[in-house]
Amino acid sequence: MESTDLRDRLRRALVQPVDSAGLAIFRIGFGSIIAWEVWRAHDSGLIRADYDLPGYLFRWWLFEWVRPLPGPLIYVAFAVLGLAGAMLALGFLYRTAAIVTCVGLTYWILLDKSSYLNHRYLAATLAFLLIFVPANAAYSVDAWRKPSVRSWTVPAWSVWLLRFQVGAPYFFAGVAKLNFDWLFRAEPLKSALALHTDFPIIGRFFESNGLAHVLAWGSAALDCTVPFLLLHRRTRVPAFGLALAFHFLNARLFEIGIFPWMMIVGTTLFFEPDWPVRMRNSLRSGGRLVRAAILSGFALGFAIGGFLPTEFAPVRALVGGFGVAVLAFHVVPTRLRAPARSIEASSRSARRFQLHRPLAVLIAVWIVVQVLVPLRHYAIPGNVHWTEEGNRWAWHLLLRAKTAQLRFLVEDPTTGERWVESLDSHLTAYQISKVRLPDMILQFAHHLKAYYADEQRDVEVRVEAYAKLNGRPAQWFIYPHQDLTQIRRPYIPPADWIEPLKPYEG
Questions:
Q1: What does pTM read for this prediction?
Q2: How many CB atoms within 10 Å of residue 146?
Q3: Fewer Cβ within 10 Å of end Cβ, the chain: N or C?
């Protein structure tokens, strides 16, 4: 009986109407960032460098059939993705735009393992969820064109689902930081800080071992707790402020693309869903203090977002201004802010939302998968940052600094001839920098097997791999006597051909 009551209360809580404004603001910011990311890829020549030039691409198992479109069509595909992001921001043909954005981002990920990035994976997951979420109910072209789409309210589950997806990278990144290197050696953070002593104002302290440990422990604590702190009214504002500072810091210290800016926009979902309406009303009819706080916050954030990173970009500046303005508005005492519209008094408030069983099951399965996948490496022996087994899709953000020296040794047993394969004749410089991952090493060995099979030569491929992890002494990474072409793909971890990481003796 109690379980039935609990289930009923949960269902009622998930379908209750909440203001649609917060969800709409997230849609606008997210779509704009996706459009900007595509433009960045085109403007910097990444599309050509990553997919038009390489002679070999590291394709994903079961998705080997995914290929770059030939010639100029690959650029057309990316242009369609950028257009879909812009349409998503505008709320124009919203469902179609969300589907195209999700498919386009997934295609981008599947083109080549070496170009996998956490922020692209996060963007793809958010785009997938937007397919099912009515984020075009407000502030959209669709709502303007079709009154049936326009609504002051959306079901609460739509906001909670996106909150979960945004909270996952925080929490699992924090859990992943609970390891020896990060907590007790402050690596690789300490080494990264030492390279950025030109950081404005505080850079001169970046060579301090004590500061590195404070930031290591502080960031682990923040990541683990910030999703939960954001859920509570009393801790939400300081938690958002800390998260904002964290993302600004990361945007300057590390090359992580759109990740900080996407997370700033996503983290605003944890505020009450009507916050944009209250903020707009405060700008219109609030007191001078409220308006001054919001406008000053925007100006400060615009300067930080625009000029703290190594190069200026309007989107960074606008997102920075947006984030600090939202923080400034919530810092102002509640009594000074203008009230929001009343959902109960809205003509649309009587709309009854349903959470049909198929959608509920799909959401439950999605949540379970998103929880289990980042934890799967705990079931695999060995240090995940060394073996890389279970590292992808797990939100292991900036937790390893790993370098490797590789030599692929090819032997023709028939003739006894041996040689070192030139990677430059197969891969780009960027791919070579990523081939240190064991599954990619194995995959490339099989590629060489097939490459020489076309020349009627049955070769064996071994690897001499010497690697360093987080400032540890270099050691052998792959057993050099192992003919990797005899190992079937995909292999089931743990790999017995990866040398175990030696205990740290610093």
A1: 0.94
A2: 11
A3: N
If you average pLDDT over residues 212-226, what whole number do you get? 96
Q: Does the N-terminal peptide bond of residue 490 adopt cis geometry, omega within 30 degrees of 0?
A: yes
Burial of 204-236, coded b for 16+ CB within 10 Å and e otherwise, reads: eebeeeebbbebbeebbebbbbbbebbeeeeeb
pLDDT in tens, 23-50: 999 999 999 999 999 999 988 888 877 7
Residue 364's Cβ-count burial label (10 Å; 0-12, 13-18, 19+) is exposed
Tokens 């925080």, residue located: 170
Long-range contacts of 253-256 (CB under 8 A, 24+ apart): 253/192, 253/193, 253/196, 253/199, 254/192, 254/398, 256/118, 256/119, 256/397, 256/398
Q: How far is residue 61's CA from residue 72's CA, in Å, rounded to a whole number?
A: 26
Is residue 74 within 8 A of residue 50, CB to CB? The reply is no
Q: Which tokens belong to 57?
A: 């691409």
What are the distances in angstroms from CA 342 to CA 150, 152, 190, 221? Answer: 16, 10, 50, 37
Strand partners, 409: 420, 462
Q: How far apart are CA 195 and CA 138, in angstroms?
A: 45
**Strand partners for 462:** 409
Q: Pull the structure tokens for residue 357.
A: 């069983």
CA 320/CA 420 separation, integer angstroms: 49
Pairwise CA distance, residues 271 & 253, whole Å: 28
Q: Residue 237 is encoded by which pair of tokens?
A: 């504002």
The SS3 call for residue 486 is: helix
- pLDDT, one tens digit per residue, over 400-430 is 999 889 999 999 999 999 999 999 889 988 8
Q: How many residues does the chain have?
A: 506
Contact call for residues 387 and 492 (beta carbons, < 8 A): no
